[in-house]
Design a protein that fits this description.
Helix content: 10-25%
Bound molecules: 2-acetamido-2-deoxy-beta-D-glucopyranose
Strand order of the largest sheet: 1-7-6-3
Oligomer: single chain
Number of strands: 51
Number of helices: 10
Shape: rod-shaped
Strand content: 35-45%
Largest sheet: 4 strands, mixed
């Protein structure tokens, strides 16, 4: 190359040399040589060019002188040749100056001669364009717009002229073009211009080659690699993985529970740091949820209540660092949890109910609410026990408690009804309500006596106002309905109101006697006692009280026969021919008491001849004990004691005269001589006759009076009494003894009848009841009791009168009959 350069510039050098040679002495000469000639290369011959003899050069001691001492060119004195002594690099010597020369002086001595030699250094293309760096790194954002300029460092070629940098080329050119601008200073500004947009997502790195070429021959070039790194521009918004996120969360879930995780991706690689947030969240959402801006985790922050919110719709936004956003929504279904117990509200309740309340009566109305939904809020209402109530549902959530069967306060006074409302959740929640229902009383029970009948026994001769018995009736009701009062039912007994016999304490039920009872008058009676409660209307019931009056031995036996008179002239006849066991007579006695008190026994207390007679202890029969002999006295006097069996016992005595004789005169004589008094005067007879007359008249009057009374008492006959056939007829107490003994408890009968068939004989039969009552049973006409009592009184009077009159008459007849000598014997005895 250097050779070529040399040859190119060579003719030019010669021209300059000749120009210089015209001025000798101090002439100058100019040569041109290319740079970079090898050391020793010929530059010019000054001997020739300056016209100097080679001898002169030697003698003149020609030499090269440079002011700076540089020695690029040397002188060969012998030949007069200038030769390159040192490498000459034009770029080093002159830089960018295109005209470059080396000048020095050639000095000759003897004589001094000075020649100026200029050697122009001609450029050769010895330098390639060079880029400052081997590689150019460019970072260009993909967002750069077409037309954008990117400066490149230009290449440098130290050569000058054509040898220096001429043009640049770029390869490839699909995105960039070159734009080369010349600056004012002549330098060039190399720029890359973006032609089409870059896309980092397609190609991240672009490799280009920039070539700089000079104009030398041969041409030299330099290249530089350009590495274009496409910088990411935030050209992609974050995109959520789902357009909406559906999830669910159970209510009451713990705080911090992960609800869901949202995630968005951004194709911009440099924008991975996506931030998440809720987009304009409501206050509720803010209070309940949080979103982790980094991870996209949505968590619970507050307490979720299904009853308040069943679903949440939250808009969520993802934002990259470039500010681009993407959005999605989260749909959160709240799952109901059975967390609400049913609530029972009593709307109305009647706390007391009468026991006669009908079936189906509403006792209470209540409302049950359960805030949960579905089965968790479906409530059933029930009562816990087998009570006579049931729950009815009228409307949704409204229930009523109604009676299901009849109520009975006497069975249950109070119900504690527990109402349970339970939902169908799992586990089920329930609540209870206690209702205390009182059953109020209705007077539906009558008092009930403890006994159907009461029997009371009371001893006769009781003190009036003595308590007899206490009756009691219970009433199952309550309060006034159970307050029992006692009454004696109205009724009569023997013509007197029952209340004149007994009274009752209406509060206590104690029954008192009102009067003293007489067993002989009244043996028993019954009363109805009524118990009545205080209800309205009142209820009542009855009981029968049988009152039995018990006998006391308050009556002594009464001797009915033989009739006791003061004279006791009545005598029983015993023929002397009587055998052993001959029935002389029979002592007849009665005791109006009954039972043991009326059980009579007979005893011979005194006798003229104890060996001759005996008395039957049971029957009172006086019989002979042995054969009567002629020696036996005519007159016998027996004292018989009749005793009852009461405690203490009561007794009566009777004197029985017995005459042992074959004929009546014998008896008369015997008896009239008993108490004969010979001192009676004759005129006594007159008195006796007078007395007889008076008595007879009285008797007739009495008869008339009695008949009058009888007529007045309608046609009622008086009682007639008749003794047993073997006994003498006596006008007095006429009991008849079938076998002559008193064997039965009740043997006394007072008969009164108008019926002639019934009037003659009354047989003894046992009685346990009031005589009068039994009379009616026996078929007799029952009269009014009062009348009977009056009749009884009258009969006693008449009886007494009869006794007196008959006795008197008997005495009178007796006295007059037996003559004066014995007229006094028994008349005044
Ligand atoms: C009902 O409950 C009350 C108090 O809770 C109690 O005093 C009463 O004895 C109960 N009644 C019944 C019949 O259980
Ligand atoms: C009670 O007795 C009276 C009369 O004796 C009668 O009228 C009434 O019906 C009776 N009452 C009852 C409940 O037996």
């Amino acid at each position: 190359m250097r050779r070529k350069g040399f040859f190119q510039t060579w003719p030019l050098c010669i021209v300059i040399a000749f120009t210089l040679s015209a001025h000798m002495a101090t002439g100058q000469i100019r040569y041109s040589i290319p740079e970079e000639m090898t050391v020793g290369s010929f530059v010019g011959n000054i001997g020739t060019d300056l016209g100097l003899e080679p001898k002169r050069l030697v003698s003149g001691k020609a030499r090269v002188f440079t002011a700076d001492g540089s020695e690029y060119v040397g002188l060969d004195k012998e030949k007069g040749d200038l030769i390159v002594k040192q490498r000459i690099d034009r770029e080093q010597l002159c830089g960018e100056l295109s005209a470059c020369s080396v000048s020095f002086n050639v000095i000759l001595e003897n004589p001094m001669e000075l020649y100026r030699v200029n050697v122009d250094i001609l450029d050769i293309n010895d330098n390639s364009p060079v880029f400052p760096k081997g590689e150019i790194q460019l970072e260009i954002s993909e967002a750069a717009l077409p037309g954008a300029h990117f400066s490149l460092e230009s290449a440098i070629d130290p050569d000058v002229g054509f040898n220096t940098l001429q043009k640049y080329t770029l390869h490839p050119t699909d995105h960039f073009n070159l734009n080369i601008q010349s600056r004012a200073d002549g330098s060039e500004n190399v720029e890359m211009v973006l032609q089409t947009a870059l896309d980092r997502e397609k190609t991240t790195n672009h490799y280009l080659t920039l070539t700089a070429v000079d104009g030398g021959k041969p041409q030299r070039s330099g290249t530089v690699k350009i590495h274009v790194l496409v910088l990411d521009a935030n050209d992609n918004a974050p995109v959520f993985s789902q357009s909406s996120y559906k999830t669910s969360v159970v209510e009451n879930a713990a705080k911090g529970t992960l609800v869901t995780t949202v995630s968005a991706t951004d194709e911009d690689e440099s924008n991975h740091n996506i931030q998440y947030y809720f987009e304009r969240p409501s206050a509720t959402v803010k209070a309940l949820f949080t979103i982790d801006s980094e991870s996209g985790e949505v968590r619970l922050k507050g307490e979720i209540d299904y009853e308040k919110h069943k679903q949440f719709k939250i808009k969520v936004t993802a934002k990259d660092h470039g500010g681009l956003t993407g959005s999605s929504e989260i749909l959160i279904d709240v799952i109901d949890v059975n967390d609400n117990t049913p609530k029972i509200t009593i709307m109305s309740f009647s706390s007391a109910l009468p026991e006669d309340t009908g079936i189906g009566t509403v006792v209470a109305m209540m409302n049950v609410q359960d805030l949960d939904s579905g089965d968790n809020g479906r409530v059933t209402c029930s009562i816990d026990r087998d009570f006579p109530f049931k729950i009815e549902s009228s409307l949704t959530n409204d229930y009523s408690l109604v009676t299901d069967s009849t109520l009975d306060r006497e069975l249950t006074q109070e119900y504690n009804i527990t109402i349970t409302a339970a939902d169908r959740g799992s586990p089920s929640l329930s609540s209870k309500k206690l209702l205390t229902l009182k059953i109020s009383d209705v007077n539906d029970h009558a008092p009930e006596f403890q006994q159907q009948t009461y029997n009371a026994y009371i001893l006769e001769n009781n003190s009036p106002s003595m308590s007899i018995i206490s009756v009691k009736a219970e009433d199952a009701d309550w309060g006034p309905n159970a307050r029992v009062s006692y009454f004696i039912a109205d009724g009569d007994l023997n013509g007197h109101p029952l209340t004149s016999y007994v009274s009752i304490n209406s509060d206590s039920g104690v029954i008192y006697a009102v009067k003293s009872f007489d067993f002989e008058q009244l043996k028993s009676f019954k009363i109805q006692v009524k118990a009545q409660d205080g209800g309205s209307p009142p209820l009542s019931s009855n009981t029968t009280l049988n009152i039995f009056i018990q006998d006391q031995n308050d009556n002594a036996p009464q001797i009915l026969y033989p009739v006791q008179t003061s004279s006791s002239v009545v005598a029983e006849m015993v023929p002397r021919s009587a055998d052993v066991g001959y029935l002389v007579t029979k002592v007849v006695a009665v005791d109006v008491d009954s039972g043991q008190n009326a059980w009579l026994s007979y005893k011979l207390q005194k006798a003229t001849d104890r060996a001759l007679f005996e008395v039957g202890a049971q029957n009172g029969e006086i019989r002979t004990v042995r054969q009567v002999t002629d020696k036996d006295a005519v007159k016998h006097r027996l004292t018989v004691v009749v005793e009852d069996n009461g405690q203490p016992s009561r007794s009566a005595t009777v004197i029985v005269n017995v005459a042992v004789a074959d004929s009546f005169p014998e008896v008369i004589s015997e008896f009239t001589n008993f108490n004969h008094d010979t001192t009676y005067s004759d005129n006594l007879t007159f008195y006796l006759i007078l007395a007889l007359v008076v008595v007879s008249v009285l008797f007739i009057f009495s008869l008339i009076a009695i008949i009058s009374v009888k007529i007045y008492r309608w046609r009622q006959n008086r009682l007639f009494y008749k003794s047993a056939p073997n006994l003498p007829v006596i006008p007095y107490y006429p009991p008849v003894y079938a076998d002559g003994t008193l064997q039965r408890v009740y043997n006394y009968e007072m008969c009164g009848t108008t019926d002639s068939r019934m009037s003659d004989i009354k047989f003894v039969r046992p009685y346990s009841q009031n005589t009068l009552v039994n009379m009616s049973r026996a078929g007799t006409v029952q009269r009014e009791k009062k009348e009977q009592e009056e009749d009884a009184d009258l009969s006693i009077e008449v009886r007494n009168l009869f006794t007196v009159l008959i006795y008197l008459a008997f005495s009178g007849i007796h006295c007059s009959h037996f003559g004066p000598q014995n007229r006094t014997d028994s008349c005044y005895d």
